[in-house]
């Protein structure tokens, strides 16, 4: 009976006892120590294991790797705002509830975002005004040139 | 939520799952947490660890390199989606990932059955060239042809347990069957392979 079970397991999982069900490994090792003739059962299983190992494994191409990595999650891109949120939490009174802290941090983050957006808008408007001035001056020069060239 | 839990399957599997020593220890847990946060080093490490395994699994299940690439890529994309919301302790990430890849393989195998023109050319081994012995490449092709000739579920059991190195509980969970059913498929699959490859002596390659 024990021998039959040993043969079944070798036929199912192969010769490497590490692949066998964990609960039966110690038992199988003890049985093998008392009945060395069971080695031939393992040898037969090992022959098929070796053939299975001969099946070639493909290796991922660089293109496949690049495609997969390109779709991977990206780190968060708002570390500055996260810092502001933490800062707002630290300044919150000790008695505030957790949701209150989160609420305050949210407002602080939104305010910070507003400041950033305002600065960007100002820069854009300033750039527009500067561009207008340059064009105006260029048109003046062009007129002057026309005047001069007659 | 992952699609696979360890509590599924037959009575043996449930008994195993109830034992305290079977609390799932996931070697990928820390890596998945970092991937979920978008850590580029963790992304690289997970690709190095999983992509070759997924590609090998898909290739052996489908015998088609283009389809195998598609399956491996799609499984990894699903891993990216899953990582930020992965709940540790319910199943191993690797088992879940194998389940995803196997489902993608089943879809393609089903499509082939429905449209026979989609099937890849049957792998027929014509034997070694007359002027040389049985080289390692020839043995590999013979083994692949024998694997491809197995019924899908037997092939899956052999590939998961032998080539992918999953334990019996993980392989059964990935296949959504009991451990007893897995053993039956594995035993029949290996017996069929032994018969199909009986003429190859171990170590015959390279002679």
Fold blueprint:
The complex is a heterodimer of chains A (150) and B (207).
Chain A: H1 2-13, H2 22-34, H3 39-53, H4 62-70, H5 79-91, H6 98-149
Helix pairs in contact in A: 5-6
Chain B: H1 11-18, H2 29-36, H3 40-62, H4 65-82, H5 93-114, H6 136-149, H7 152-163, H8 168-175, H9 179-196
Helix pairs in contact in B: 2-3, 3-4, 3-5, 3-7, 4-5, 5-8, 7-8, 7-9, 8-9
Provide structural commentary.
The complex is a heterodimer of chains A (150) and B (207). Chain A folds into two domains: 2-53, no CATH class; 79-149. Chain A is built from six helices and no strands. Chain A has helices spanning 2-13, 22-34, 39-53, 62-70, 79-91, 98-149. Chain A is elongated, with a radius of gyration of 38 Å. Chain A starts with a helix and ends with a helix. The relative contact order of chain A is 0.05. Mean pLDDT of chain A is 70; it is low at 80-104 and 124-150. Chain B is mostly helical. Chain B has helices at 11-18, 29-36, 40-62, 65-82, 93-114, 136-149, 152-163, 168-175, 179-196. In chain B, helix 3 (40-62) packs antiparallel against helix 4, helix 5 crosses helix 8 and helix 7 (152-163) packs antiparallel against helix 8. Chains A and B meet through helix 1, helix 3 and helix 4 of A and helix 3, helix 4, helix 6, helix 7 and helix 9 of B.
